[in-house]
Write a structure and sequence with these properties.
single chain, 6-stranded mixed beta sheet, 26% strand
């Protein structure tokens, strides 16, 4: 029997899959689809939006939305997404937490679980020039 890998992906502020544009959201959508097709995974994608909801886009993939479009600033709103999703992420025993946007992962990276630590990974984008010491957690 193969164990299921539990993955949380902290996205950004557009829907998954995006209706138009959304490079980050397209990457997250297609990456999660490939992982779900090829591996035994359960993926929760956390995004920010206007109203809270949970949507299943694949039998192995859920999109969980937290209200976080408050500041009209990408960095501040994605950090708010990280803060609002932090308690949910800590309740579930994820094997991997992927922050596609560093500002959304930062609040989660500053917590400790009582059990073993999970692996934190984020995908590099333009802000790693601004935060070179936080490149890899």
């Amino acid at each position: 029997m193969v164990n299921t890998l539990y993955v949380a992906i902290l996205g950004a502020l557009l829907p998954i899959p995006p209706l138009t544009g959304g490079a980050i959201e397209n990457h997250i959508y297609y990456l999660s689809q490939k992982l779900a097709k090829k591996y035994n995974v359960s993926i929760d994608i956390y995004i920010g939006g206007e109203k809270p909801f949970i949507d299943t886009i694949h039998p192995k993939i859920r999109v969980i939305c937290f209200p976080s479009k408050v500041f009209k600033s990408f960095t501040l709103d994605t950090m708010l997404l990280g803060l609002r999703s932090r308690s949910s992420i800590l309740k579930i025993n994820y094997d991997l937490v992927h922050g596609h946007v560093f500002s959304s992962l930062y609040p989660v990276s500053k917590t400790r679980r009582k059990r073993e630590l999970y692996k934190l990974v984020y995908t590099e984008h333009f802000w790693n020039i601004l935060l070179p010491t936080n490149r890899y957690l």
